[in-house]
Amino acid sequence: MTTIDARDHGRPPARRELFMAFFKIGVCGFGGVAGWVRPILVEERDWLSDREFAELHGAASVIPGANTVNLAVMLGDRFQGPAGSIAALCGLLLAPLAILIALASLFEHFGDLAAVKGALSGAAAATAGLVVGNAYKLLRALKSDILALAVAGATFASAGLLHLSLLTTLLLVVPGSLALFAAARRRRR
């Protein structure tokens, strides 16, 4: 990966800024950070464009592990090297780990209450809404790139509609998208 500057004033964010941004993502998105990553990194901090975010998130999604963890490590490295990766990763994981320990002990005592079960259902619905909203914004950013939309559509059809496994989806979509983009590049020459 090439090193990029932060969009804000042409300087990369410091390790402390990486830590704080991912700490906020971890706190706000406890239980489902996917809906918070793009708004904080693209809209609030202005570190990435929508396209850069989509590309980085796509790369983070095909690497084994949690997408946001991979994204934190990749973005931290891009801006501040290995120390930046550690700062972003620690920021992302610190608050959720502390919250999880506290909630686990509370859930042990109060988990059977109807109000607790209802609150958990509501939180799941809110997270789903955030994911759908971010997907819409990413698709809007890629609306002029027909090939990228075709790949996104094929991925959604494979995993979402056909319920193929992640491995099968990757084995179908990755080579297909590479061939599609290579053919398009040859036509442009």
TrEMBL record:
<dbReference type="GO" id="GO:0015109">
    <property type="term" value="F:chromate transmembrane transporter activity"/>
</dbReference>
<keyword id="KW-1133">Transmembrane helix</keyword>
<keyword id="KW-0812">Transmembrane</keyword>
<feature type="transmembrane region" description="Helical">
    <location>
        <begin position="86"/>
        <end position="107"/>
    </location>
</feature>
<keyword id="KW-1003">Cell membrane</keyword>
<keyword id="KW-0472">Membrane</keyword>
<feature type="transmembrane region" description="Helical">
    <location>
        <begin position="21"/>
        <end position="41"/>
    </location>
</feature>
<feature type="transmembrane region" description="Helical">
    <location>
        <begin position="168"/>
        <end position="184"/>
    </location>
</feature>
<protein>
    <submittedName>
        <fullName>Chromate transporter</fullName>
    </submittedName>
</protein>
<dbReference type="InterPro" id="IPR003370">
    <property type="entry name" value="Chromate_transpt"/>
</dbReference>
<dbReference type="GO" id="GO:0005886">
    <property type="term" value="C:plasma membrane"/>
</dbReference>
<dbReference type="Pfam" id="PF02417">
    <property type="entry name" value="Chromate_transp"/>
</dbReference>
<dbReference type="InterPro" id="IPR052518">
    <property type="entry name" value="CHR_Transporter"/>
</dbReference>
<feature type="transmembrane region" description="Helical">
    <location>
        <begin position="119"/>
        <end position="139"/>
    </location>
</feature>
<comment type="similarity">
    <text>Belongs to the chromate ion transporter (CHR) (TC 2.A.51) family.</text>
</comment>
